[in-house]
Design goal:
binds S-adenosylmethionine; alpha/beta; two-stranded antiparallel ribbon; 20% helix; Rossmann fold
Length: 276
Amino acid sequence: MNQTTEPRQLPADCADGADAGTFRLEEVPANAEGMPERPMLASPGQLDLRCMDCMDLMREFPDKHFDLAIVDPPYGRGEDGGTTQCHGVKQKNGKVLAVADGGYEKKEWDVLPPPEYFNELLRVSRDQIIWGVNYYAVNLPGGRIVWDKVNDGSDQSGAEIAYCSLNQRVDVVRYMWRGMMQGVSIERGMVQQGNKALNERRIHPTQKPVALYRWLLDNYAAPGQRILDTHLGSGSHAIACHYFGAHLTASEIDADYFAAAMARINAETAQTTFFN
Ligand SMILES: C[S@@+](CC[C@H](N)C(=O)[O-])C[C@H]1O[C@@H](n2cnc3c(N)ncnc32)[C@H](O)[C@@H]1O
């Protein structure tokens, strides 16, 4: 029997347009006693996820509606699937380990966002964390976040850089992320996870780890806040928001990625049945 639990209300002025491309995490299956099958989080984050163009999404919201935007727009580097641009990563013993293609279908989305994107993003959000800031022709002085991917010896970027409006510092987080080489945890991000079965499954050519999004939320957000993600991709951010208790509104333009992300989010948030 499936039973809808007490409805989790979206903030009053959230857009309401539920359609085929909209996903809301609202239902928890009940067991025979009528109790939720998986333990409820104290206050799980609400997810309002849409398969649409982010410019159309942002147009729906008034000025400064979101407490924080955490976004990862295209960097314009041809990373939208097809043959990978990374061929190997050096191990501690000096050997170069070949990195296999992820097998992602070649798409055409990796085009730099237009200047209007940044104007609109700053209009609808009070604060922003914008990954890929080094690739954009926008003037965003202020803080920076550097994610060290601990992939020394790889022929890919060793780090990614975000603009952060919340302070003037450069903060650094270290978490290994290169193919099957992933960190144990955000606290032990320099140490490679030995048990590959515990690795995060990758479904998107530029997927960021859930652990990274959780670290961002822990350090720059508060539970209950309204968060915006204009480029959802694999859904890692949505999984992190669910467990952190932040309300995420997000868009993803590609229908295949959107469907895969929704399946992943459903599966990974349902895991509380087994592990909580
Ligand atoms: C850099 S990836 C984001 C990866 C994501 N951070 C993750 O962890 O999986 C950018 C994503 O934005 C999507 N995209 C590109 N243009 C878009 C647009 N105008 N509106 C919404 N999504 C868009 C692409 O399909 C792609 O999935």
